[in-house]
Amino acid sequence: MRVFSSNKELLKSINNQSLIGIVPTMGSLHDGHLSLVKKALNDNNQVIVSIYINPTQFNNKEDLKAYPRNIDKDLEKLRDFKDIIVYNPSDNDVYDKMTSKDYDFDELGKVMEGKYRPGHFNGVATIVQKLFTMFKPNNAYFGEKDFQQLLIIKALVKKLKLRIKIIGCETIRDKFGLALSSRNNLMSKEEKGDAREINKLLFKAKKMYISYSVEEIREKVKEKLNSLNCCKLEYFEIDDLGRYSKFLVEDGKRIFIACWIGKTRLIDNIPI
Ligand code: PAF
């Protein structure tokens, strides 16, 4: 494993003729990230794992401050993957000015995460475009837990006519069904207990969808979540997000949820 903070140094160690895969992350790596790295290593000759907490995608300063940072542990977890290249830049290595570009992702950028986290997707697209432009990967790997982000990145690549394949990988869950997320580390034991209800509710909602309307299901989900100690529903949708962007095709409905568990905001989704 080789670790770089400067993209110029990193580029010197890459063979442009080989197949390059990238796994962009914000660190606090868990088994979900590691499964992306394994898949990337399987598909490519060289794999770059970027670890960078990108300030421009946080629409809330407190959230950025609280975001877990564990670079030593992260490098420890990656150490077994001998052949990877880690890109761990500082803000100055990435940004001249700490601002994001203004993208138009049609309605896809305005619903759900786009609605509740204004500016978030502009920040994500800005950093992902920078990584793609710097390293020109053939393949890029993202988790399906952030499904709307995955579609935004697919739309970005189409819009910019980049020759990069975006590969969405299945959400990895703990044994209780909770989707792995770096933010899970921020929750207390009691909060984690409540968080484990989210996935159960998604599967109940999937069964209900045969006989009930989305509005009726949303009400039931809201009732259940709000009855828990630490939980508050932000949104619940059943939709095919592909229909919100001219760069994407419809690909089937999924059930999406975002909720607050104490001060931690979690999202999850499953296919219908
Ligand atoms: O999903 C994430 O961790 C981030 O949004 C990403 C894609 C690494 C961009 O900072």
Question: Mind explaining what this structure looks like?
Answer:
The chain is an alpha/beta fold and about 270 residues long. The protein has two domains: about 1-170, HUPs (Rossmann fold), CATH 3.40.50; about 180-270, Pantoate--beta-alanine Ligase, Chain: A,domain 2 (2-Layer Sandwich). The chain has ten helices and nine strands. The protein has a six-stranded parallel beta sheet, with helices on both faces. Strand 5 (about 140-145), helix 8 (about 145-160) and strand 6 (about 165-170) form a beta-alpha-beta unit. Helix 7 packs across helix 8 and helix 9 runs antiparallel to helix 10. The radius of gyration is 19 Å and the shape is globular. The structure holds pantoate. Pantoate binds near residues 24 and 127.
Summarize it:
The protein is α/β, with parallel strands linked by helices and 272 residues long. The chain has helices spanning 7-12, 31-43, 61-66, 71-78, 91-94, 113-116, 120-135, 147-159, 189-208, 214-227, and strands at residues 2-4, 20-25, 46-51, 84-87, 139-143, 165-169, 231-239, 254-261, 264-271.
* Helix-strand makeup class: alpha/beta
Strand segment count = 9
Q: What fraction of the residues are assigned to beta strands by DSSP?
A: 15-25%
How much helix is in the residues?
25-40%
Determine the N-to-C terminus distance. Answer: 39 Å
What is the CATH class name of the largest domain? Answer: Alpha Beta
CATH topology of the largest domain: Rossmann fold
- Which strand order does the major sheet show? 1-4-3-2-5-6
Name every ligand kind in the structure: pantoate
Please tell me what the overall shape is: globular
Radius of gyration: 19 Å
Our count of domains comes out at 2
Task: Please outline the major beta sheet.
Answer: 6 strands, parallel
